[in-house]
Amino acid sequence: MLLECRDVRKVFGGHAVLDGLTLDVAEHEVVALIGASGSGKSTLLRCVNLLAEIDDGTIHLDGEEITDPRADPDLVRRRIGLVFQSYNLFPHMTVLDNITLAPVRVHGRPVEEAREQARQWLDRVGLAEKSGAYPDRLSGGQQQRVAIVRALVNNPRLLLLDEVTSALDPELVGEVLSMIRELKGEGMTMVLATHEMGFARQVADRVAFLDAGRVLEQGPPEQVLGDPVEARTRQFLTRII
Ligand code: ADP
Ligand code: MG
């Protein structure tokens, strides 16, 4: 397993947002997290990226316990890319500088190496000619694709995507989804929180339904989305479709 979350517990203000959550992700696997708003999807992704500290349980990446207090969060985050719903690009920096800022400043990568890698990624996703542009010259879909490139430039082992299409106008969703589909084709391991059930069905190897901070049900998309075992999964799917 590339990622192993065991009995993960995260408490906010006395409320267990993650309540004994267990989830494994194999290398090259794409897992879609679905569930009602507040079920803990974003919190889980933030805990895996060590942006939030768990209160109990363990998270292993490549067999190493990253939730061990001795683990170096910067090194862990180099191996795990996280992209949010809002792309958070710096408006006063070019696309290329947005992408290379963290690798250079945080991870100490040589500037030219980071820039070269960023250019290669931009080329692969069809944004090569935008490298010197400022974010406000880009469409929302292009900005989100740049944000994904920014998460890829350290060659992470795992990519976490948190509702990356929800802030986009409907006509811009497709270009981001097709980029994710391409990354899957290249074998990228991904965990994506989404409420795009059609996309989850197409791209995910496995769908995990979160309910009250646990994985209540998981399995192949056609099973979980088409013929769920749990009444709560069925209720959720009826409400959103
Ligand atoms: P989802 O992404 O599935 O909608 P979240 O993980 O964002 O769910 O939130 C789960 C619960 O945790 C919500 O009730 C939310 O209010 C709470 N929560 C998330 N982050 C914080 C925080 N930093 N402080 C307090 N409560 C939080
Ligand atoms: Mg969320």
UniProtKB/TrEMBL annotation:
The keyword Transport applies. Coiled coil: none annotated. GO terms for cellular component: plasma membrane. Belongs to the ABC transporter superfamily. GO terms for molecular function: ABC-type amino acid transporter activity; ATP binding; ATP hydrolysis activity. Residues 3-237 form the ABC transporter domain. Keywords: Amino-acid transport, ATP-binding, Cell membrane, Membrane, Nucleotide-binding, Transport. This is Amino acid ABC transporter ATP-binding protein (PAAT family). The lineage of its organism: Bacteria, Bacillati, Actinomycetota, Actinomycetes, Micromonosporales. PANTHER family: AMINO ACID IMPORT ATP-BINDING PROTEIN, GLUTAMATE_ASPARTATE IMPORT ATP-BINDING PROTEIN GLTL. It is a peripheral membrane protein. Its main location: membrane. It is found in: Cell membrane.
